[in-house]
């Protein structure tokens, strides 16, 4: 499923944005199953125009590649991921990278559970812009509130590389980000990026669940050897 929000009538677009910003996660119990749960997570793709955000989302959801997919405002995709006894529905928001849309992009990533900061490995300026997106996310979210992945796209153009792999790895490590290089064109590690997001989201979900540890037997609060003392009773006739 994919659609361009900018093509929807204003009332419907506003309602859709409000619906997706309403909650950070939505657990649902599957019918007929006592163990399987479904969670809905919002994943946003951020980065400069033409770095391949739309191509990454399209490759992951449709397993197809389109050379040019300009996004107007925001596009929307969904994908189901099954991990262990958990089904996760990823709602993928592909934001436009043009400068004229920057002022409203915060509306799209508000309430997100994960963000992919995408840059083009052949254009140093897009890596710098990804760092600026990270600053914006750091102002919006606490560190443990959102999963952030730094994605260097277009490894199929490695001969034209401007962003060294080591530099990107070092930056991601310094900021505690997941890091991966991909190619939407050659389908290199595209699925792995989204699976890394899903696994980290599930890991954090499990950490939130209360642990049910068996409690040790406690000594009775009533000493049967102690003589009865009416003065200690809580109720008197």
Automatic annotation (TrEMBL):
EC class of the enzyme, as a word: hydrolase
Protein name listed in UniProt: Ras-related protein Rab-17
Subcellular localization, as worded in the UniProt entry: Cell projection, Dendrite; Melanosome; Recycling endosome membrane
Lineage top rank: taxon: Eukaryota
Region named Disordered: 1-33, 208-237
CC terms in the record's Gene Ontology section: apical plasma membrane; basolateral plasma membrane; dendrite cytoplasm; endocytic vesicle; glutamatergic synapse; melanosome; neuronal cell body; postsynapse
Any Gene Ontology biological process: protein transport
Chief location bin: other
């Amino acid at each position: 499923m994919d659609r361009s929000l900018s093509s929807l009538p204003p009332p419907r677009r506003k309602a859709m944005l409000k619906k997706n910003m309403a909650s950070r996660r939505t657990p649902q119990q599957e019918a007929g199953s006592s163990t399987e749960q479904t969670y809905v997570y919002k994943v946003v793709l951020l980065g400069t125009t033409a770095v391949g955000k739309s191509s990454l989302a399209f490759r992951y959801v449709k397993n197809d590649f389109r050379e040019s997919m300009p996004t107007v405002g925001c596009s929307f995709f969904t994908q189901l991921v099954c991990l262990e006894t958990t089904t996760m529905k990823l709602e993928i928001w592909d934001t436009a990278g043009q400068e004229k849309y920057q002022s409203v992009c915060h509306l799209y990533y508000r309430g997100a559970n994960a963000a992919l900061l995408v840059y083009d490995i052949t254009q140093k300026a897009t890596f710098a812009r990804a760092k600026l997106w990270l600053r914006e996310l750091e102002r919006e979210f606490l560190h443990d509130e959102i999963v952030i992945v730094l994605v260097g796209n277009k490894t199929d153009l490695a001969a034209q590389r401007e962003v060294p792999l080591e530099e990107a790895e070092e930056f991601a490590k310094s900021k505690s980000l997941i890091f991966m290089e991909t190619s939407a064109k050659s389908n290199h590690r595209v699925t792995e990026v989204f699976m890394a997001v899903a696994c980290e989201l599930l890991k954090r979900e499990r950490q939130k669940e209360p642990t049910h540890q068996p409690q040790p037997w406690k000594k009775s609060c009533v000493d049967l050897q102690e003589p009865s003392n009416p003065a200690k009773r809580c109720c008197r006739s």
